[in-house]
Design brief:
The protein is mainly β and 282 residues long. It is built from one helix and 15 strands, in the order αβββββββββββββββ.
């Protein structure tokens, strides 16, 4: 019996020695001794993009005070016609004073006096212009309230780049010559004409063509136009000057040009203009 008891005691001692020392230590408080996950484990590996990498703080855009309504000139606009006088305009044919009629804050085409253009030259710009077909308009097709906004006037007559003005309220013509078209080049995306007697609005972005030293084309002209708030030309690339007969071409290099308003030779009643302003763009 002594031998057996000794063996039992030895086994118990061996088991006790085999228990890990950690089991004999007090339990650590929950969370104590844990280390934070390394950066790679948190998805922020060294050299990874940061949101600051794509944030730009200069140059700061200039502050422009808008008009009291969207049609009013903002603080940086050049006012070309505000109903008071025609001082910003001259005759296209001889650069004399513009001979159009001024009454009640509106200027009306004098067909006998011919087209007029701005004294200033412009390159790239935003223009706001309002025009009205007379309520008693007569004629058909292109002989019905015909005029044009020439975004760059490059010479006498109809030389330049024309956005067409015409009465197309229930009046048909060739679609690349109706109101809102880049004349003979681009059909308008919609026909938002108001009826004769109501004021119509053009808001246009003009990017002038540029030329190399030898007179060859460097970059073409582009136009975006809203007609009564409706997009009718969406960054259209012009093929050259607008022409009545033949194909357009960039054959008259220029560095800035006047803006021209056309006195068309048709026999319909003359149209009127008001509230014209420009913002030059860099």
């Amino acid at each position: 019996m002594r031998i057996q008891s000794f063996r039992i005691l030895a086994c118990a001692t061996a088991v006790a020695l085999a228990v890990p020392l950690s089991a004999q230590q007090p339990a650590a408080p929950q969370g104590a001794g844990r280390q934070a996950a390394p950066p790679a484990a948190r998805g922020a590996a060294p050299g990874a993009p940061k949101h600051e990498d794509t944030e730009v703080y200069e140059p700061v855009p200039p502050v422009v005070t808008p008009g009291t309504v969207d049609s009013a000139p903002p603080s940086d606009a050049i006012v070309l016609f505000d109903g008071k006088n025609l001082d910003q305009w001259v005759s296209v044919k001889d650069k004399s004073a513009a001979g159009w009629t001024l009454a009640d804050g509106v200027m009306t085409v004098n067909k006998a006096a011919g087209s007029i253009e701005t004294k200033r030259k412009f390159k790239n710009y935003q223009i706001h212009l309002e025009w009205r077909i007379p309520a008693n308009i007569t004629g058909t097709d292109q002989a019905r309230g015909n005029s044009g906004l020439f975004l760059a006037s490059t010479g006498p007559g109809d030389a330049g780049y024309e956005l067409q003005i015409l009465d197309n309220y229930n009046s048909k013509t060739y679609v690349n010559g109706q109101a809102g078209s880049v004349y003979k080049q681009s059909i308008p995306l919609a026909n938002p004409n108001r009826k004769p007697g109501e004021w119509q609005t053009y808001d246009v972005i003009w990017t002038a063509p540029t030329f190399n030293a030898d007179g060859s084309l460097k970059t073409p002209a582009f136009v975006t136009a809203f007609f009564n708030g409706v997009l009718v030309q969406n960054h259209f690339q012009l093929q050259g000057e607008t022409v009545y007969v033949g194909k357009p071409a960039y054959d008259k290099p220029f560095d800035g040009a006047p803006i021209k308003l056309q006195a068309h030779g048709d026999r319909s009643e003359p149209i009127s203009f008001r509230n014209i302003w420009v913002r030059e763009l860099n």
